Amino acid sequence: MIRESAPAKVNLLLHVGPVRADGLHELCSIFASIELADELSFEPAPGAAGDEVRCPGVEGPNLVAAALAAFRARIDGGLPPLRVEVRKRIPVAAGLGGGSADAAAALRAANELAGRPATLDELRALGAAIGADVPSQIAPRHALVTGAGEHVEPIRLAPLALVLVPHDDGLSSGEVYAEADRLGATRPTLDPASVQALAQLPARDLAARLESDLEPAALSLRPAIRSNLEALRRAGALTAMVSGSGPTAFGLFDSDADAAAAAATIPGAIATRLRR
Fold it and tell me: Are both 205 and 236 inside the same structural domain?
């Protein structure tokens, strides 16, 4: 059996550019890998007719199954049918990359069980066809992410604690990007060099400069998210934003103790931190 941790991410900064020829938006984003993570186990099931993916509490198609199918279609590794158990801790459809993290974990596990026939770059290329956030999670860490998610450059970030406030009514990325286009919230050009420079700032300076081009669209579609942002600010957050396409709001804090105290005042909040 192989066990894989699948960490969530937050978009500390997210700039969205024009639509490419393939229909995807260019982006430039600081992906912060956080300690909140799903846990997955993989074991061969030689007698099974196909992969068995169990994710208690989450119904419908799972990106884990798509990742295993993509691996077999592209990599000649003789991967047997697998029995997979997904223990979900990351909220679903929350802008935290949980499904993408699970898919990346499946690609890592499949590669290991098949005898490592693929390089990390080959796994990232497979992941890009599954979802825009998957390549960055193949080797999860803080990263500057560009292109439509396929270009991943590791970065360092100052230590920060976070409070996440999920929202019951999830959002689809496609819906949020379409609303951002309607609102005119995207940019004609992107500047990765300036974003990379921001990532090097001390925690408080970084917090003061963060922004997300998708936040207006997420708030337009789910106005109730505003109350979660306001609750984080009242609790002392250095800044409060919507992560990715939402609807999860997050606040940044100087210390774990500050984050824990803030989370205790907000129903459903989750205290966590950047991975080190």
Answer: yes
Q: Which helix (H) or strand (E) holds 54?
A: strand 52-54
Average pLDDT for 133-145:
94
Catalytic: 9? Answer: yes
Annotated active-site residue in 38, 51, 102, 133: 133
For residue 54, what are its two tokens?
Answer: 């169990």
The answer to whether residues 140 and 177 belong to one domain is: no
- DSSP-derived 3-state class of residue 248: coil
Question: Are 116 and 9 in a shared domain?
Answer: yes
Instruction: Report pLDDT for 272.
Output: 97
Angle between helices 63-74 and 120-128 (to 10 degrees): 120
Note the pLDDT tens digit of each residue in 147-196.
999 899 999 999 999 999 999 888 888 999 999 999 999 999 999 999 99
List phi, psi (to 5°) of 112: -65, -45
Tell me, yes or no, whether 144 and 168 share the same domain: no
Active-site residue, from 9, 38, 51, 102: 9
Tokens of 106: 């499946």
**Do both 132 and 199 map to the same domain?**
no
Mean pLDDT of the region 246-264: 96
Number of domains, the chain:
2
Record the tokens describing residue 148, joined without a space: 């439509």
CATH number at residue 108: 3.30.230.10
Domain that holds residue 27: 2-154
CB distance 232 to 263 below 8 Å: no
Q: Is 88 known to be catalytic?
A: no
pTM of the model: 0.91
Burial of 20 (0-12, 13-18, 19+ CB in 10 A): exposed
